[in-house]
Amino acid sequence: KGDQSLSLLLESEVFKNENRTDQLSNVYEEMLKNKKTESLGYRGLMELNLNNQDYHHAFLYGEKLFLLNPNIDKLYETLIHIAAKTKNWGKLIWLSEKAYSKKIIKKEIFLENTSIAYYEISKIKLDSNIKEANKNIVKSLELRKYFVPYIKLHLEILSIMNNVTQLKKMIKKYWYYQP
What we know:
The radius of gyration is 22 Å and the shape is elongated. The chain has helices spanning 2-17, 21-31, 38-51, 55-68, 75-85, 89-101, 107-125, 130-143, 148-160, 164-177. By secondary structure, it is mostly helical. 78% of the residues lie in helices and 0% in strands. It has 10 helices and no strands. Helix 9 packs antiparallel against helix 10.
């Protein structure tokens, strides 16, 4: 087993240097079958797919790697970059919750990234489900109070909903805290 691990590692480096991606992909797949090299296989497949701009598969492999070992250097940052690139805001929320619970990120980063995800979901829902858009923008404002772009979208949503009473109330509230 130890010899096989070393052999797979050496093969992967040779194929990487020679830019033989098909063989490299096969070696990474082999690595997944061995507990000692499983993390390396997932990382290699994630990076290979990132290089090919296949963000969907890159995220899938990165997510499996994150579940195996969330403390790998820059893994969280790579995954949030992919989630943002693919506009997978639900995964950004999930990822931030997991990273925060495992003390990989600080509370401020958790709040900021989660609020961004809810804000982006709210913008998407604006055209299809205004009530859902409102719920999501309220969530983002709970996480990042009085952030001007969120306030603007919230007021816009209330205006679209023709909720004049709530709109007036929120304008007064926001103006008081963030003139």
